[in-house]
Design a protein that fits this description.
With about 375 residues, the protein is an alpha/beta fold. It is elongated, with a radius of gyration of 23 Å. The longest helix has 19 residues. Strand 5, helix 3 and strand 6 form a beta-alpha-beta unit. It has an eight-stranded parallel sheet with strand order 1-12-11-8-7-6-5-2. The structure holds iron/sulfur cluster (SF4) (2 copies).
Length: about 375
C-alpha cells in the first residue's frame, strides 16, 4: 500500500512527457507500470507546445523545459484522462491524476477528477510558491481520495521541515522529480545551448537521494523517490534511504515503456538474490544504520583492499590516486601503500570492476584480501 493505494509493485511513471497523454500512459501500463499517471494538467494550458524543449545532458541526463499539458483542462479530461482511467480500470491499477499549480486551480480540477473516479491526486508543486503548497493541499482535503505532493529543492534546503508541516494533508511525498532551473551553456555552440531549464536523470540522482533520506527519516507518510531512477539497483537504493516506491521519467523516455516492468523485475531479483522477502524488509535500512549521522569515509578507519581475482590490471587506480599510494604498472596487480593513503575512497569508487573495496584498516593489514558480507546484512 502507498498512501492508500494498492500497488502490485513499487515502480510508477513520473508525471512527465513520457506519459504526455492517454496513449503514452496506456503504453506505460502495458510496459509494466504499477499505476496510471499522466503529465501534469492545469486549468490554463501551457502557452504553446513550442515551449517544450529537451536536450540530452551527458550520459543518462536530460535537460528539459516541459510545461504542463498543452490542452485546456476540459479537453484534457475528455481526450486524455477519461480513456486513461478506463485503461487503468481494465488493468486493475490505480489512476493518479497530476494537477498543478495554484490552490484555486487545483481545487476546481480536484473536484472534477474525484467525481470521475480518480484514485489519487498528485499535487505538482514545480511551479507553486512554497507558501501556497499548504493552501493547495487544504483545498483538496475535502475530497475523498489521497493526495500525494511533489516537492523539490527549489522550495528550499529544508524539505524535511516543509514535509513535516504538510504531513497532516499529504498522503505521501514525492521527491524530487527534477532539479532547476539550471543553465546549460556550451561556449562553442552558444546558439544551440539549451539555456535555462530543468535537469533530470542520472545527474540529479544524488540530489534526490539526499532529499529522500532527509524527508523519509522525518515523516511517517510514505516517500516516493523520483530523480535518476533507471535500474532496479537505483530503486533499491532509494528504498534503503526510506522510499516506499519510485517514479521513473528520464529512463523511460530513453528506454521506452518497458522500462517500468524491467526495473520492477530487477528490484525483485535483487531482493531474491539478497535473501529478502519483499521491499518492506529493506525500506529505511540506511536510516536505521546512519540516520543519526551520515556515513563519512574518513571516520570509518577503513582502507582500500584489493580483491585480486576481480582486477583486470587496467592501471586506472594509480591514475586517480592523487597521493601516489597506488602503484599499478601495466599487466601487474596494483599495490597499495598504507602510509600515503588518505582513505579518500576515490580509487574504490573509480575501479571499473569493484576490485578495490573498503575494509576496516586492521582487517586489511592482517588478512590482506578477501570478500566480506553484504553491507545491509547484520
Ligand atoms: S582500477 Fe581496479 S581493475 Fe584497474 S588495476 Fe586498479 S584495482 Fe585493478
Ligand atoms: S583511498 Fe584515496 S589515497 Fe588511498 S589509495 Fe585510494 S585514491 Fe589513494
Amino acid at each position: 500500500m502507498l498512501g492508500g493505494l494498492s500497488l502490485a509493485h513499487p515502480v510508477l511513471p513520473g508525471p512527465g512527457p513520457h506519459v504526455a497523454g492517454a496513449a503514452e500512459a496506456i503504453k506505460a501500463l502495458r510496459g509494466g507500470a504499477a499505476a496510471m499517471v499522466i503529465q501534469t494538467v492545469t486549468l490554463q494550458p501551457a502557452e504553446a507546445a513550442s515551449n517544450m524543449r529537451r536536450a540530452a545532458h551527458g550520459k543518462d541526463g536530460l535537460w528539459h523545459m516541459d510545461p504542463c499539458s498543452p490542452l485546456p483542462f476540459d479537453r484534457w479530461v475528455e481526450q486524455e484522462f477519461a480513456p486513461a482511467l478506463q485503461a487503468a480500470r481494465e488493468a486493475g491499477v490505480p489512476a493518479i491524476a497530476s494537477v498543478g499549480y495554484a490552490p484555486d486551480e487545483v481545487a476546481v480540477m480536484g473536484v472534477r477528477l474525484a467525481a470521475m473516479g480518480a484514485d489519487a491526486l498528485l499535487l505538482d508543486t514545480s511551479r507553486t510558491e512554497r507558501a501556497a503548497i499548504q493552501p493547495a493541499l487544504q483545498a483538496l482535503a475535502g475530497l475523498s481520495l489521497p493526495v500525494l505532493v511533489k516537492l523539490g529543492p527549489h522550495h528550499g534546503e529544508d524539505l524535511a521541515d516543509l514535509a513535516a508541516e504538510l504531513e497532516p494533508w499529504a498522503a505521501a511525498f514525492c521527491l524530487i522529480g527534477a532539479f532547476g532551473p539550471v543553465l546549460a551553456l556550451d561556449a562553442d555552440r552558444p546558439g544551440d545551448s539549451p539555456g535555462l531549464g530543468f535537469l533530470s536523470g542520472a545527474p540529479i540522482r544524488p540530489v534526490a537521494q539526499r532529499f529522500v533520506f532527509d524527508v523519509a527519516r522525518r515523516v511517517k507518510r510514505p516517500v516516493i523517490a523520483a530523480g535518476g531512477i533507471a535500474t532496479g539497483l537505483d530503486a533499491v537504493t532509494a528504498m534503503l534511504l526510506g522510499a516506499s516506491a519510485v517514479m521513473v521519467s528520464t529512463a523511460a523516455l530513453a528506454g521506452g515503456p518497458g522500462t517500468y516492468g524491467c526495473i520492477a523485475g530487477e528490484v525483485n531479483d535483487w531482493l531474491d538474490g539478497h535473501g529478502y522477502g519483499d521491499s518492506g524488509e529493506i525500506r529505511g535500512a540506511y536510516i536505521r544504520k546512519y540516520g543519526g549521522g551520515q556515513r563519512v569515509v574518513v571516520e570509518k578507519e577503513e582502507a582500500p583492499q584489493l580483491v585480486a581475482e576481480a582486477c583486470i590490471k587496467c592501471t586506472f587506480c594509480e591514475t586517480v590516486c592523487f597521493y601516489d599510494a597506488i602503484t599499478a604498472p601495466a599487466k601487474t596487480l596494483p599495490t597499495i601503500q598504507e602510509a600515503p593513503c588518505f582513505e579518500c575512497g576515490l580509487c574504490v569508487s573509480a575501479c571499473p570492476t569493484g576490485a578495490l573495496q573498503f575494509r576496516p584498516r586492521d582487517e586489511v593489514t592482517r588478512s590482506g584480501g578477501g570478500e566480506g558480507s553484504g553491507p545491509w546484512q547484520s
